[in-house]
Design goal:
Structural class: mainly alpha
Number of helices: 4
Largest sheet: none
Radius of gyration: 45 Å
Order of helices and strands: HHHH
Distance between the termini: 128 Å
Helix content: 55-70%
Shape: rod-shaped
Strand content: under 5%
Number of strands: 0
């Protein structure tokens, strides 16, 4: 360093030390900035996994639908209704609800013809 009797030389030496430390820290900070930027870019390059798709829920089975689309079952029920004397409007409605997609009017006509 400097001498005890030259305060200016001591101050200049101290300034050089501080400048060297600052330079070392600046180099380290620049290296850290570069490393952070590279890491950020690599994270951005990682594909984001897609959201999991929920599994489809099975459609509830209604207790009021004894044989949906079952023509043989619908015929049997229609014959039972005709035999029991259920009014045609009520029979059509009940069969349409219990057997969607089945031509219930024709089934009732067939059941009435076979009965009688």
């Amino acid at each position: 360093m400097g001498t005890d009797d030259d305060p200016r030389a001591d101050a200049l030496a101290r300034l050089e030390q501080l400048a060297a430390r600052l330079h070392a820290h600046a180099d380290e900070a620049a290296a850290l900035r570069d490393e952070l930027a590279a890491l950020g870019a690599s994270v951005e390059a990682i594909p984001v996994p897609p959201e999991p798709t929920p599994e489809p829920q099975p459609e509830p089975v209604s207790a009021a639908v004894p044989g949906t689309g079952d023509i043989a079952g619908a015929r049997l029920v229609a014959l039972d209704m005709v035999t029991s004397g259920v009014p045609r409007d009520e029979a059509v409605l009940r069969l349409a609800v219990d057997f969607p997609g089945v031509d219930v009017a024709t089934l009732l006509d067939d059941a009435a013809t076979s009965r009688g």
